[in-house]
Amino acid sequence: MADLPCILCVDDEPQILQGLTLHLRRQYKVVTADSAAAALKLVAETSAPAVVVSDMRMPVMDGAALLKRMLQLHPETTRILLTGEPSRDSAATAVNEGQIFRFLTKPCAPDDLRAAVEAGVVQHRLVTAEKVLMQETLIGCINALIDVLAMTNPVAFGRTNRVKRLGLDLAAALGLTEFWQLEAAAMLSQIGYISLPAELVEKLYYGKRLTAEERALADGAPRVAQALLGRIPRIESVMEILTLSQDKQAADGTDGLLKTGADILRLVLAYDALIVAGNPVNAALQTLRGRAAVFGSQLLDRFTALLGSQAQAPAVFELAVAAVKPGMVILDDLRTTVGTLLVPKGFEVTNAFLERKRNFDAAILQTTVRVTGLAGAMKIA
Predict the structure, then answer these.
(1) Is the CATH number of domain 6-127 2.40.30.170?
(2) CA terminus-to-terminus distance, the chain
(3) Summary count for the chain: helices (H), strands (E)
(4) Domain ranges within the chain, ordered by starting residue
């Protein structure tokens, strides 16, 4: 049964659920719920089904509303609506809001039911395969891009690994695993800074006061990001997370997975900025709690619990720049003899950085810096 596609059947009439189970149980793993609320609770506690078959007329939350919610939470699940009294209005609502795959009427012949569910399973496999392809191909390309940009502009792009790890850890704590859209958005969150002067990027990184002209330039960075990313096909969901993370008011008017991703990204970016500015972890969290209206009390509670549950950071030790290895976090600014910032504190060493440091002056390679292991990336000394 574990290898069979999972079908979730939702209806407030027990005899209907029994009939659906009877017709589908030979080919599928069938789970049932007698209300929309019970269905959502079941999915939250287990996993998303391949197909959900829902009755239209149910108390409190009808089938159209349930399928709309499933679309927001688990867009890869195929949605089928089953109703005894179809009408133009209910059909239009279900199709437009829930983006249903099939619309079946009661009584539904067993063969028609099985054919619709099988087509839904095939659709789920196609969507899932595409999702895997997007994750592996897109994320791989973005990783390569950010590695290159981090070599040329470590101040702007050296923080992306920290932000990505924080965001994905928080998402996992919320039960959202394999959240590739958030992963991509976190890595691309600094892309707009590519248009800014290095001195301005450094001031932004350390939270220094900006002139009016510098602020205007910095405020234009999101538009640069939109222009650059707008040329890449099929990353609309990633761009929406980036946009909503920068516009709390717009995010409050939305719902679903992408809003959650935007809320997470907004929070971890703010936390990282406070830590880089020299605030201890507890002080940074206290500052964020003072802005609970921006970040949300519940999300802050989860984030605080996450930071508290992290394993104790490994000891800080000193090491020559020439000896640093991937996964180590450099805890001191590394500058040239004329003061140019090569690596900001909190920079996580990558393989790309090892290639870059081959070109460093011998004196810089022998410079001693404080470093810590990967687990210490969340707590920059």
Answers:
(1) no
(2) 51
(3) 20, 11
(4) 6-127, 153-310, 312-381
What is the secondary structure of 21-44 as a DSSP string?
A: HHHHTTTSEEEEESSHHHHHHHHH
Nearest to 5 by CA among 38, 49, 43: 49
Buried b (16+ CB within 10 A) or exposed e, 257-293: bbbbbbbbbbbbbbbbbbbbeebebeebbeebeeeee
pTM > 0.85: no
**H or E segment to which residue 182 belongs:** helix 180-188
Q: How many whole angstroms separate alpha carbon 35 and alpha carbon 11? A: 6
Quick one: 205 exposed, middle or buried, by C-beta within 10 A (0-12, 13-18, 19+)? buried
Residue 11 in tokens: 């209806």
Q: pLDDT for 115-153, tens place per residue?
A: 999 999 999 999 888 777 777 788 888 888 887 787 778
| Beta strands across the sheet bearing 347-348 | 317-320, 368-372, 329-330, 347-348
What H or E segment, with its residue span, contains residue 54?
A: strand 51-55
Coil, strand or helix at 289: helix
66-120 per-position pLDDT tens digit: 998 898 888 899 999 988 765 555 665 556 555 788 888 888 899 999 999 999 9
Short-list 218, 265, 274, CA closest to 244: 265
Three-point CA angle 155, 161, 162, nearest 5°: 85
Q: What does the pLDDT look like over 208-225, one tens digit per residue? A: 899 999 999 999 988 888
3-state secondary structure of 119: helix
The CATH homologous superfamily to which domain 153-310 belongs is: Hypothetical protein af1432 (1.10.3210.10)
> pLDDT for 6-59, tens place per residue?
999 999 999 999 999 999 999 999 999 999 999 999 998 888 999 999 998 899
107 cis-preceded (ω within 30 degrees of 0): yes
- With beta carbons less than 8 A apart as the criterion, state whether 319 and 330 touch: no
Q: What is the DSSP-derived secondary structure letter of residue 123?
A: H
